Amino acid sequence: MISSNLIKRGLFIVFEGPEGAGKTVQAARLAEYLGKIGYGDGKAIHEPGGTRIGETIRGILLDINNKGMQPLAEFFLFLAARVKFVCDIVKPKMENGEIVVADRFALSTMAYQIYARGLPEEQCLTAIDLAVQGCEPDVYFLLLVDPEIGRNRQGLQGKKPDRFESENLDFHRKVTEGYVHFSQRLQNCVVIDTDHLTVEEIQKEVVDYLRKRFGDRFPNL
Ligand code: TMP
Fold this sequence. Notes:
Helix content is 54%, strand content 11%. It has nine helices and five strands, in the order αβαβααβααβααβα. The protein has helices at residues 4-9, 23-36, 52-62, 71-95, 106-116, 121-132, 147-156, 169-183, 199-214; strands at residues 11-16, 45-46, 99-103, 139-144, 189-193. Strands 2-3-1-4-5 form a five-stranded parallel β-sheet, sandwiched between helices. The protein starts with a helix and ends in a 7-residue tail after the last helix. The structure holds thymidine-5'-phosphate.
C-alpha cells in the first residue's frame, strides 16, 4: 500500500557505489522510466552538480590539476555543492510530489572522504547532517563492483581519468570498504553486487524493489 504522505512529499532515490559500478547508467534508466510514467523530466541529477554553482564546484573537484587539494578542503567543497543541490533541487521537487533520482549523495562522502581519505568520522558526520538539512533519501541503491572490474569497465568506455579515477586501486578498495561499512548503518539501503550482472539485470532488481516497496507508483510500461 502507498501512504498518502509519500504521494504528497515525493520520493528521493539515490544511486551510490564505487567507480565503474554502473550508477550513472542505472540512474539515467530509472529517471527515463519515471519520465515515461509522468514523474519528472526523465533526467537523473549527478552530485556534485545539477546547479550552476554545483557544476562549478564539480569542475574544481574533478580537475586532475588540483591534485594538491587537502582532503578537508575537498570535503567542504562537496558539502557546499550539496547544500545547493538540496535547497534548489531536492527540497522543491519533493514538496511538489516529484521523484528525484540522484547519482551519488551523502554516502559517497562517507565512503570517499571519511573512510578512504581518513577524515574524522564524528565531526564529518555532523557536518554532513548539517548540509543535508534532514533531506534523507527514501532509498539508496548501493551498486558494488570489484575495483578491478570497475576499472576495466571504465577503461572500456574510453574515459580520460579525473582526479578520483586516477587514484590507485588501494584507494578504490578502501572506498568500497567504506561503502559497505557505512551502508550497514542505513535503514533504506539496497545493496546490489554487480560483478556478474548485466545492465538489464541490475535494472530489474531496482524496479522490482521499488514496485515491492511503493506499489503502483511504479507500474509496467
Ligand atoms: P562522478 O559523478 O562522475 O562519479 O564523479 C564524482 C566523483 O566525486 C567520484 O569520483 C566520487 C567523488 N565524490 C566524493 O569523493 N565525495 C562525494 O561526496 C561525492 C558526491 C562524490
